[in-house]
Amino acid sequence: MGARVVVVDDDETLRALLQRALENQGFSVTLLSSAADLERRLRLAVPDVLVVNTVLPGMSGIEVCRRVRTTPSTYRLPIILLVAGDDRDEALAGLAAGADDCVTKPFSAGELVIRIKSLLRRINPSLLEHMIKVGDIVLDRDSHRVHRQQKEVRLGPTEFKLLELLMRSPGRVHSRSEIRLSLWGDDAKVNERAVDVHINRLRKGIGLEKAGTVIRTVRGAGYSVGDLSSK
């Protein structure tokens, strides 16, 4: 599971084009068509990057930027704004409202991929690295291998994605709803109980004798990878 990108645009053709380009580069992509859809999504989980068009049903992309920047849970969310190529004032207004970058239409999907990677290198470069290390756990995105205390541990594909999600932000508590959305999207057949099941499998998979507790449960809030420095 690569960096999570949410694309908000009411142009279905463009959304499909961007989805293919981003997924080919390893990004996890969610497509939305309106600001209302985005608001509902952000209440459940905050992505790693938001790509939003200035023209949306019900609310402009510029207003979306303002709201994101004034909401405590999303004020640090990286935003790329898609603007009409002949509207410089709109681009400036978007940057003033909180967008980190603007891409003018028409643009190639490849350009957007480059802009997203450039933004992540500045803000959160770990999302682009293939190796993640937290304490004595090392996760390799490219080979899909996990080592703990220099011993390889075997994980199923869902447990691997779950561990990657937690390791990308050690210490941060992820709610069950956020984990479910990140791993299974909008699949209505998967409930939050499935999160607990896979957490237990992950604990067994990475649990070594006398290795201490790795996955921390925060009652009523969710799960996190704890501080392993004292283990």
How is this structure best described in words?
By secondary structure, the protein is of the alpha/beta class. The protein has two domains: 4-127, 3-Layer(aba) Sandwich (Rossmann fold); 130-230, Arc Repressor Mutant, subunit A. 39% of the residues lie in helices and 21% in strands. The protein has eight helices and eleven strands. The protein has helices spanning 12-24, 35-44, 61-69, 88-97, 109-123, 157-167, 176-184, 193-206; strands at residues 4-8, 28-32, 49-53, 79-84, 101-105, 131-134, 137-140, 145-148, 151-153, 215-218, 222-225. The strands form three sheets. Strands 2-1-3-4-5 form a five-stranded parallel β-sheet, with helices on both faces. A four-stranded antiparallel β-sheet has the order 6-7-8-9, with helices on one face. A two-stranded antiparallel sheet has the order 10-11. Strand 10 and strand 11 form a beta hairpin. Helix 1 packs across helix 5 (109-123) and helix 3 (61-69) runs parallel beside helix 4. The two termini are 27 Å apart. The model has no long low-confidence stretch (mean pLDDT 88).
Note the topology.
Blueprint: E1 4-8, H1 12-24, E2 28-32, H2 35-44, E3 49-53, H3 61-69, E4 79-84, H4 88-97, E5 101-105, H5 109-123, E6 131-134, E7 137-140, E8 145-148, E9 151-153, H6 157-167, H7 176-184, H8 193-206, E10 215-218, E11 222-225
Class of secondary structure makeup: alpha/beta
- Strand arrangement within the widest β-sheet reads 2-1-3-4-5
Query: Strand percentage, roughly?
Result: 15-25%
Count of all domains: 2
Mean pLDDT across all residues, rounded?
A: 88
CATH topology of the largest domain: Rossmann fold
User: What are the low-pLDDT stretches, counting only 5+ consecutive residues below 50?
Assistant: none
Task: Please provide the ordered H/E string of secondary-structure elements.
Answer: EHEHEHEHEHEEEEHHHEE
Termini separation comes to 27 Å
Oligomer: single chain
Output the number of helix runs.
Answer: 8
